[in-house]
Amino acid sequence: MDDTPSPDLDLRGLTPPAPMVAILTRIDEGRATTPFTVTLPHYPAPLFEELERRGWDADVLSVGLDGARLRLFPARRR
């Protein structure tokens, strides 16, 4: 596993569904192995189910007029 921190992604310039596609592609292609932060143009309700399907989770850091920030990370095994 690569322990290099994943860079933050600012996806506010994209229109839906491009932000979610960018996140899920990064995870699906194995480019995301460590936690990373995303900034989105809006609160991404549909994203949470897709993350769960892939064994990932998210903490909502902030939601406001300028978008939503989330910290995404591999889910802890139970």
Describe this structure as you would to a colleague:
The protein is built from two helices and four strands, in the order βαβαββ. Strands 1-2-4-3 form a four-stranded mixed β-sheet, with helices on one face. It starts with 8 loop residues before the first strand and ends with a strand. Helix content is 26%, strand content 31%. With 78 residues, it is of the alpha+beta class. Mean pLDDT is 90; it is low at 1-5. It is globular. The chain has helices at residues 18-28, 45-53, and strands at 9-10, 36-40, 56-64, 67-74. The longest helix is centred in the first third of the chain and has 11 residues, at 18-28.
- What about the largest sheet? 4 strands, mixed
Percent in helix: 25-40%
Mean pLDDT: 90
- What Rg, in angstroms, do the CA atoms define? 12 Å
Coarse shape: globular
Strand order of the largest sheet: 1-2-4-3
| Helix run count | 2
Set out the fold topology.
Elements: E1 9-10, H1 18-28, E2 36-40, H2 45-53, E3 56-64, E4 67-74
Parallel strand pairs: 1-2
Antiparallel strand pairs: 2-4, 3-4
What does this entry show, briefly?
This protein is of the alpha+beta class and 78 residues long. Helices cover 26% and strands 31% of the residues.
Keywords:
78 residues; 31% strand
